Amino acid sequence: MKRISFVLCLALILAALPVAAQDILTAEQFFAQVSERYAQVNDYEGRIAITAGKDQMAGVIAFRAPSFLRIDFVQPPDQVIAFDGKLLTVYVPSLRAILQQTAADKAGGAGGAGLASREGLKMMKRNYTIAYESSPTPVALPGGAADETVVRLLLSRKSVAEGFRTIKISVSPDTKLIRRIEGVTVAGDTFSFDFTGIKLNQGIPEARFAYDSPASANVYNNFLFGSEK
Length: 229
Prior knowledge:
Oligomer: single chain
CATH class: Mainly Beta
Radius of gyration: 22 Å
Low-confidence stretches: 6-21
CATH architecture: Clam
Helix content: 10-25%
Number of domains: 1
């Protein structure tokens, strides 16, 4: 009788295993859910904070699919990054300079901030391996609010051609929206992009991403790659 009871208990445990396993998402499955969420985003706006080494920047970000992006900074004051799908423009008021780069010259939009989009996620899936940083369990966001938790993904590049050696993505588990992106370059430099107060599908027009340059500023074209073709 004892042996029969033991066998029955073992059978019940084994029968439950597949069900339990189905409840645990792999990192790639979770990343796919985030990608599906951003596939439904036509545009968004909110606040962004950028940390590059010891330098900190903050401003208002606006995005429109597939790759329109604009950041109006409050720190440093009045600085602007705008990408209208064809031309990347950076206005640096302290230098009275406007830096411009066309997409045809591999400007690639506006860097790490552009990763929080459907196209950015497609690029990461294609060029990086995806894993949980530690586990699928939500954890406290470093430096975030006391009650703020995120799921942390760790992406490692497949090719040396990628600018970021590793990328960490912190995702709000309820909304499946990206809260923070942290990238480490080949040189070991760390960049962090925090997204807060994001409002989705606001009907932002394309005209929002056209930048009217101050007449007094000097314009420098092809600032990323010079005049090479």
